[in-house]
Amino acid sequence: MRVFTLLSAAMALIAAPLAAQVALPRVQLPQLGPLVGETLDTLDETRSGLQRTVERLARDRLRTIDRLVRRNSDAIEFDAQGAPARRGELLIMDAPANSLGPVLEAGFTLLSQEEVEGLDFSLLRLGVPAGMDLAEAQSTLALLLPQAQVSADNLHFQSGRANGAVLALSAQGTSSSTAPVGMIDGAPGPAVKVTETRGFAEGAPYPSNHGSSVASLLGHAGARTIRVADVYGTDKAGGNALAMTKGLGWLVSRGSKVVTISLVGPRNAVLERAIGAAQRKGVVVVAAVGNDGPAAPPAYPASYDGVVAVTAVDGKRRALIEAGRALHLDYAAPGADIYGRNARGKRIGLRGTSFATPLVAARVSRAIGQGRNWRSALDTEAIDLGEKGPDDTYGRGLVCSTCTGR
């Protein structure tokens, strides 16, 4: 009994999100004595290996961002929080009327006034004075406009990758009773059929492998009306908050009731306001938690209030080790051992929380289209994995579990 207790305690040392990755051998109780030392060593090695993976993911994230900024320094720089953003531009909300005099005298330039279609708010886009970096400009504007909301135009990154075809995605929920779905990403290629695409970045719409895969998954999972806001195009600073905000507004104005976003970035006041405005119009926003690992900062927009945050599992229903985190977690869906289509229409294998997110969005679309409460519908379908009840690894459970077929 003492040996059994010792083994149980050793197993408990592995954190729940990491333990979900490991299939430990089952042994008969009389055999435990000779295996205790070996099992404890294995558990220690497993825990150490997973910890190293988590640390590597965190380092890789920082290296990737640093490399992106250095290679595109003409278009991207770090903001006051150390997050990448469009170089030389700031976004201003709630600036009092006639308050720009001191701002313009300080060398800032008014680049445009943006009326966000469909979301009923506007903002100012300001150019930073020559020789002033973005962080300094943010501090300066905060002093000049203390009542306004000053924000960098932060970049957001796609959260998935192709890795060779494996399991096939089966069409699910093919009923025509589905609510219109909007998608914020890159544009799909011509082989992936969607209802409408509009560009919100330089060179957009421009075919994207990531956008093509997300759109193909939406269609396979049953979404029938799919509109795409391309926020990348060929822009070095694509995926920025302003493009996403304008894209979201367009999708709402075109009647989208569900919007799926398989992108991650830092908290941004402009995008947060846009999502809140869309939600007040009855739109459900679904977003990925990203693939930077559990040591990464909370992912946005998944972490904004009311957004449906989605993580991913593989074909054996194991949580992906690289799955990021959000301030809350709603559902898991298949995000590995599935396939989609790239920009040329070729079948490719997929891995990442990016690809679980459209499956959840399609389920929400189906429930709304059938006149059901989408939360109750998903909760009824969800398979409880991990700890009993909602948890930090699988959220409220696994949905679209039959979306893959061997």
Describe the structure.
With 406 residues, this protein is of the alpha/beta class. It contains ten helices and 19 strands. The strands form five sheets. The chain has a seven-stranded parallel β-sheet, sandwiched between helices. Strands 1, 2, 3, 4 and 5 form a five-stranded antiparallel β-sheet that branches. The longest helix is centred in the N-terminal third of the chain and has 40 residues. The radius of gyration is 23 Å and the shape is globular.
**H-E order:** HHHEEHEEHEEEEEEHEHEEHEEEEEHHE
Average of per-residue pLDDT values: 87
User: Which outline best applies?
Assistant: globular
| Gyration radius from CA atoms, angstroms | 23 Å
**Oligomeric state:** single chain
Structural class: alpha/beta
Query: What's the helical proportion of residues?
Result: 25-40%
What is the number of strand segments? 19
Quick summary:
The protein contains 10 helices and 19 strands. It is α/β, with parallel strands linked by helices and 406 residues long.
Tag the structure with descriptive keywords.
406 residues, seven-stranded parallel sheet, 10 helices, globular, disordered N terminus
Produce the secondary structure layout.
Blueprint: H1 2-12, H2 16-19, H3 32-71, E1 76-78, E2 84-93, H4 101-105, E3 109-116, E4 121-127, H5 134-144, E5 149-154, E6 157-158, E7 161-162, E8 168-169, E9 181-185, E10 196-199, H6 209-220, E11 226-230, H7 241-253, E12 258-261, E13 263-264, H8 269-280, E14 284-288, E15 308-313, E16 331-334, E17 336-341, E18 347-351, H9 353-369, H10 374-381, E19 404-405
Parallel strand pairs: 9-11, 9-12, 10-11, 12-14, 14-15, 15-16
Antiparallel strand pairs: 1-2, 2-4, 2-5, 3-4, 6-13, 7-18, 8-19, 17-18
